[in-house]
Amino acid sequence: MLNVLGLAIGATAVDATAAQTPGASTFGIGAGIWLLVANTLGLLAGGYVAARLSGSGDSTDSALHGLSVWAIGFLLSAVLLGNIVAGTANTAFQGASSIIGGVVQGAGSAAGGAASAASGPLAQAAQQVNPQQLVERAQNALRSAGGDPAQMNSDQRNAEIVQILTRRVTDGNLPQDARDRLNRLVGAEYGIAPEEAQRRVQQVEQQAQQAAQVAEQRAREAADAAATGGAVAAYWIFAAMLLGAVAAVLGARFGTRHGPAARAYA
Asked: How far apart are CA 116 and CA 196, in angstroms?
């Protein structure tokens, strides 16, 4: 009941129209404090009732009844949380399946419409495209690889430039002969001096390395933040469970029946 009340208070604090909603950090701190207090009060009351209804006057038995309430309460919470997570995942999967089905259906409709539209002038233009010419053009672009860059056409130079750059990305470095070849190709393609082509290639490599370093640094920072957040959350959960156990035992102590001491008569 206290958790539901906290949820209601948190939802009431949201005011999107007036743009006066507290920040995420404020919500997180408030929710954590409320959950801690609600958990402690609930287990305190549960331990008291369990010890009171047990009818035992032994403090150890009462403490064990309080710990039983604590253990069963956290077990039920874990089960309920698991069901919520599973239900959320199932809902998300069904939603994704519906979206994918809609996209596929829409793509099929679009393809049907495109096929209908292609029956006009677009179909005539498509019939004039010869796939064999495209293949021959690609083969021609790759056939003269390693030749004089000045005697190659633009398609041939660009094809070899892409090939060398692919080697640079996959291998992480280029041998000196491949680097010289790339400089000559760039110079011939853009009509610049070999020194200027070399400078441009080095500049592009530096920019690529800087971008890779920045991406790696951001990935490391994100992983570190996730690990730190997970550790902090685990510590808080452990503290909440420990405080809950103490509250359950104290409640059981308060609820223990203390009757008059029995006397032995001779």
From this structure: 52
pTM score, whole prediction: 0.52
Residue 140 lies in a domain: yes
Query: 171 is in which domain, residue-wise?
Result: 131-191
For residue 261, tell me if it sits in a domain. Answer: no
If one counts every other C-beta atom within 10 angstroms of the C-beta of residue 182, the result is: 22
Tokens of 73: 């309460």
Q: Considering the domain boundaries, does residue 165 fall inside one? A: yes
Specify the amino acid at residue 77. Answer: S
In a domain, 69, yes or no: no
pLDDT given for residue 44 in this prediction: 92
Report whether 185 contacts 162 (CB < 8 A): no
Indicate the residue type of 13. Answer: A
What is the per-residue pLDDT across 253-266, written as a single tens digit (0 to 9) for each? 888 887 654 455 55
Count of domains in the chain? 1
Q: How far is CA 258 from the centre of its chain?
A: 55
- Give the total residue count for the chain: 266
**pLDDT at residue 49, as a whole number:** 92
